[in-house]
Amino acid sequence: MDIPHIAFIGAGNMAGSIIGGLLDSGHPASCISAADPFPASLERLAEIAPVTVCSDNRQAAANADVIILAVKPQVMAEATASIAPAVQDNGAVVISIAAGVTIASMLARLGPQAAIVRCMPNTPALLGCGASGLFANDNCSGQQREYAGSILEAVGITCWVETEQALDAITALSGSGPAYFFLFMEAIIDAGCELGLDHDTATTLAMQTGLGASRMAIESDVDLVELRRRVTSPAGTTERAIQMFEQDGLREVVTNAMRAAANRAAEMAREMG
């Protein structure tokens, strides 16, 4: 695969993480540019990556094969309008990581032939262990899909979905998911303190337990049900706790919460047109 020139519109934390992952995977800095209206953002990026930076979106995108829109949804209209000439002249694929901004709304500003990939990454991408869902419109070539996949794989795993609507479920699961785990860890820590542990001890044990459980789930050759069964001795302490989770409707609570998140993602798309 040829080395594409990649332009980032927006130089915030997520853009910096992806750029860092690209450089670590061998993508040359000379083939990366970034634009941001805030000098402080460009200065922070320049400290970690020797890429070309500027304040003008059109300048950054001028020679790009891939343009990554890493801006807030509220400024997407302005951002897409500014890169439209480069998209049309270069045939660049546009990758959007903005929640709630539909492909239809981007096509209205970029032109009906624009190749667009919508992506929903999550914050663990900042550590190189993200999970991203991707959807490409029919204008994308096989190579452009490869570009998008390889870029996001630089900061974690990727999963392609068949419909744009499925990104709402991705948002509810992995996009918002880190916050669910953080909340659960908060609850475990608080409960540990109520049972007599000091806060530092409860925090250390909860975080390491979360890390260990995740690694076992990823690295094991058995499924989650079997892993849970192996920890749950009959008539033991874990079984009693699991019974309480089930009795109090943990699964229903999780389902309702994720449905609410997915519905909100769909609402945001309608609100933004």
Fold blueprint:
Elements: E1 6-9, H1 13-24, E2 32-35, H2 39-48, E3 52-54, H3 57-61, E4 66-69, H4 76-90, E5 93-96, H5 103-110, E6 115-120, E7 130-136, H6 142-153, E8 156-160, H7 166-175, H8 177-194, H9 199-219, H10 224-231, H11 237-247, H12 250-271
Parallel strand pairs: 1-2, 1-4, 2-3, 4-5, 5-6, 7-8
Antiparallel strand pairs: 6-7
Descriptors for this entry?
ProC C-terminal domain-like fold, 14% strand, 12 helices, single chain, elongated, Rossmann fold, 273 residues, 56% helix, eight-stranded mixed beta sheet, alpha/beta
Write a structural description.
The chain is of the alpha/beta class and 273 residues long. It has 2 domains: 6-167, 3-Layer(aba) Sandwich (Rossmann fold), CATH 3.40.50.720; 177-269, ProC C-terminal domain-like fold. The chain has 12 helices and 8 strands. The protein has helices at residues 13-24, 39-48, 57-61, 76-90, 103-110, 142-153, 166-175, 177-194, 199-219, 224-231, 237-247, 250-271; strands at 6-9, 32-35, 52-54, 66-69, 93-96, 115-120, 130-136, 156-160. An 8-stranded mixed sheet has the order 3-2-1-4-5-6-7-8, with helices on both faces. Helix 6 links the parallel strand 7 (130-136) and strand 8 (156-160). Helix 4 (76-90) crosses helix 5 (103-110), helix 7 crosses helix 12 and helix 8 packs across helix 9. The longest helix has 22 residues, at 250-271. The radius of gyration is 21 Å and the shape is elongated. 33% of the residues are buried. The mean pLDDT is 95.
